[in-house]
Amino acid sequence: MGCSIIGIDTVSELRDKLKNIGNALNVSVLSTVMNKKEYKIDIPGLGINGNDGRTRYQDVINSDEFMLG
Prior knowledge:
With 69 residues, the chain is of the alpha+beta class. The chain has one domain (2-62). Helices cover 33% and strands 20% of the residues. It has helices spanning 12-24, 53-62, and strands at residues 2-6, 27-31, 33-34, 41-42. The longest helix has 13 residues, at 12-24.
């Protein structure tokens, strides 16, 4: 199963459409969110947050769950 990440400023109507498409294609669709305690962006579901994001992001890119295409 693949994974797609929606940006933080994506309007809710488009976010819902993308999640429906992801469900139909068996692709996880995750949304970035602002952290409520610190000035950082988190990606729930991948364990990526502002503190360890660069390292974890590279791990995800190198994994089989992330494909460019």
